[in-house]
């Protein structure tokens, strides 16, 4: 959609103010608390992890979201408040209640989010103590600092803005996310917050987020491990609205959807690019199974294979590992004679036979790039799917062997 | 079964002779060719990879096995002859034909096996040239050398013998296997050859192998990548038989089955212990889902999680990663309040709550051992399953990033 443009700057969203603070959740002296305040009238949609053992804050955010229009999100890094039993639930509720008192809203209008180590008690008191400073610092320009406060093993903050026009009004979409490890989002990503100043019908907002997440956050994988804390929130403040609610059918809807998808795709690719130990961003594109779902099976088998990912790290065009991963993926009806594999547009296998003119050095040069595609043709049907992944390096092992030490 | 004993030595199996040679398949000066000759009358069962893109030798071995009683196996390491198209099939057939001529049998009585790099043409001529020396060297005492010749990134040869008594006769089972990487066998393991001098009914042999493989080779994982070349062969030479064929119902059958399972379990554990970069052998034992198959889903999710495996490498009792893996495994009906997790017998989580008396140092000491169990209780039903896995170290990345260089 031509009306959408990604902004080179991070743009505030009218109706959203943000602040960060140092609560000393895990380490002293870093910002680890983020408060996002939403103006009255803002509408919020959320998608959450499908992990059965979702964290205490996820359970509470899901419940509160059905009971009241959110007025604030309280997010901490350094501790996931997952696997913490009943204690974890009451700790999360205590944080919401304290924030609500400061903001003058009801406790269930404050949604809690946590990311970090699983299985340790949340230091709720330290978070509560840091809240007044955060409330005092709320600012429409706080997006980038917020993106930094929610990081765990991320090395760069992830923050993207887009703009679009509808009905003569210029709207903004800004989003932040964090990722790095335990990343195979399923209905959401680790933590992502998107906001727009458009006026979106409540009935349409959740479907919009679900569809966008399915095409962005839910198509990335770093290590195949779906987190207990994944949450993705979309806020429509309506602050720049022309009075008429936007929903499918509204002339501005395609631009709104495109702008939100552009921000979500940008954030999800930024998460993969900054995956734990990652040195490359690789798009695995599969077509030709009987359905999109079957193509997705093959794409994930390749995108999550430790053997493929270590070969990508080494820029080694060891395509046999790709073939082996597709072959074990469980896609039905595959036949070797129909298979094609290419790195970017450079063919390796065609109709199941190695390409005679194949030169390994050419393939190795493609794999040495920071971003490239693996294209896989299955030759059976109209299905298509793509998954964005990264390589698997020494640093992945180092980061995850040392994460708690 | 009390009649079965694992031997401290490698025992020859009457009716089986083995030889190795250096064919220079990939590197000069190492034994990379193994010939196994079976006496007339020997019966053979085989299970092969479920990878759709199985290698040329697998396709031919499966076909030949239905047409004639095998008289020999020709196995090379250094090249998998997989992803090699029509050329790969004719290369494998040429090797079989040359061996058959030297051994005085029909070509389809010779089964080919290959392991090594995928996607490069098999140097069939060099193998054919090395066959006469191998035939001349055939010896009943060749098992250990054979186990060495079939290695790729394995660091130790895997060879086990067991004995059992039935009807006053002492029988032998000896087996060899190789593993190391691309190891999540599905109906077989990378390469394994077991032989017994018992006289086993042809109708019972295949079922025996299938059942044993399901409880041993098919319950291990190193990296979740099912190879294109997995093959496991079981030979019953009948050389020590009392004339009556053994089959279910024969008084010696339980001992035969136990002896073969003992060898298969020993080999499969040896494969995991020698997994690429592995420093630990970990048994993931899950019970309490509605079925064994559901338990197996959870066990594989834990056993293949890169986050769990890097924590195991670090001896870090980061049980939240185990909880997260079970939670995303797709097992239905899970509830946090029913979950239990223990390292060996030391409880971490009971009824979904962290155990109050838990001391992290105690857990870390268990994880520092060379072998331990992760016990997971789901509390929903009678299912049980276990999977044997290893940790994930820097060396896994090093080995697989450098494998072809």
Summarize it.
The first copy, chain A, has helices at about 55-65, 85-105, 125-135, 145-150, 200-215, 255-275, 290-305, 305-315, 320-325, 360-365, 395-400; strands spanning about 5, 15-20, 35-40, 45-50, 70-80, 110-115, 160-165, 170-180, 190-195, 230-235, 280-285, 340-345, 345-350, 355, 370-375, 385-390.
Detailed description of the structure:
The structure is a homodimer of 405-residue chains. The first copy, chain A, is α+β, with helices and mostly antiparallel strands and 405 residues long. Chain A is 33% helix and 24% strand. Chain A contains 11 helices and 16 strands. In chain A, the strands form 3 sheets. The first copy, chain A, has a 6-stranded mixed sheet with strand order 1-7-8-9-10-4, sandwiched between helices. In chain A, strands 14-13-12-15-11-16 form a 6-stranded mixed sheet. In chain A, helix 7 crosses helix 9. The longest helix of chain A is centred in the middle third of the chain and has 21 residues. The first copy, chain A, starts with a strand and ends with a helix.
Which helices and strands, and how do they pair?
The structure is a homodimer of 405-residue chains.
Chain A: E1 5-6, E2 16-21, E3 33-38, E4 43-48, H1 56-67, E5 72-79, H2 85-103, E6 110-117, H3 124-136, H4 143-149, E7 158-166, E8 169-178, E9 191-196, H5 202-215, E10 231-236, H6 253-273, E11 281-287, H7 292-303, H8 306-313, H9 319-327, E12 340-343, E13 346-350, E14 353-354, H10 360-367, E15 371-377, E16 384-390, H11 394-402
